[in-house]
């Protein structure tokens, strides 16, 4: 019997952590981008945070494409 | 190309047909939730997926060379007839599961077909039982669990994080995220699955002596495999899309995003870390996980059980058909001809059966018969059997009673009562 438990465990761990992290970060981006201050404008901090979150996700997508092509 | 015989030509064409069925069978993986949440229009979604599958096919030949070079060493003398028979088994199983609208793994069908054909022509000793367990059975259990759990947690998280946000404003973001994840799944699918066909085509060319044993796939092989899978994807297996996008659970934009991201991450992680998981099984798991992640979400287990049954049957069924085909095909030219004729006839019959109830881009988002939450629609559940052939009934054992019992209105006091007598 030759089951690669280490690879299996890695796949389990990486998939779980990366999925939850990415979805979490992207959700912060969405929430930050849609947040409104009392006067109706978008808060600078929220907007910057939102862009930062999207940038992280874009990086993850680039990594994904790299993984596919490699 | 003096060795390019008619038989090799037939094998190449059959491999491309398999590639085509692989494409339309697996459109659902990337695009089912994208279509059902309305993130993209059905036609736009399959077009994008098709283009990315085509692009993906050109990105790498690593998997293809593993297949063509890895197998030829062990089974020196593998014959084109055997590959042909294996492909026939895989294609027929793909068509049958498509007719039933069941998401099942095309790769597993291909493996099952090749195993069956090999056993019939060489003997049972040719199959490595350990390899079947470690490379097929365990991943088949692992894939939906991993992806489902990830999608479940991610769905919970995103609903919680965005609970104070305006759904009107967030849904655009969710759609963008979902389309991006779906694009990655499509690209990965083109790379992985088109390469499997390339590997088989190259194997046939090598076994016929057309190209050298250590040759890489020729460019025309790569191009034709990419085009075949893209065409299949574009035509879209709408029946399977409907099952995955509507049949298993009701998907809202945040769930679609979480499910699709979980699928993309799990597929990429598994292929990168050397523990290959079936795209179909990963995506089905994600959809189900995200179904439970939303408050009040339900998973329609009758549809899920039908899908699980099909997964269990994929290898034996494709293998059995392939074995019978192999027994005929190795008899010589007349045997190959008989297999080819029967194969075309069976495919035509399945296609004809599918025309009785057409599912296409216009009605893909309608409720699947028998899964509607409306009690008044109960009769439609029985009507379900009308659209399936007897053969599909055999592989998909949901009795109408189980369908009722597991339908969303479980709070119906009569449901439990009705379930008991007719349960499997």
TrEMBL record, chain A:
Transmembrane regions listed in the UniProt entry: 12-31, 51-69
Assigned keywords, A-Z: Membrane, Transmembrane, Transmembrane helix
Superkingdom assignment: Bacteria
Keyword Transmembrane: yes
Protein name as annotated: Uncharacterized protein
Native source species: Streptomyces chumphonensis
UniProtKB/TrEMBL annotation, chain B:
Membrane topology according to the record: Multi-pass membrane protein
InterPro entries, A to Z: Phos_transporter (IPR001204)
Domain of life: Bacteria
Keywords: Membrane, Phosphate transport, Transmembrane, Transmembrane helix, Transport
Gene Ontology terms describing biological process: phosphate ion transmembrane transport
GO cellular component, one term: membrane
Transmembrane segments: 6-24, 45-67, 82-101, 108-127, 133-154, 197-213, 219-238, 308-328, 334-353
MF annotations from Gene Ontology: phosphate transmembrane transporter activity
Basic and acidic residues: bias regions: 415-424
The keyword Nuclease appears for this protein: no
Start and end residues of each stretch annotated as Disordered: 362-424
Localization, UniProt: Membrane
Sequence similarity: Belongs to the inorganic phosphate transporter (PiT) (TC 2.A.20) family.
UniProt protein name: Phosphate transporter
Organism: Streptomyces chumphonensis
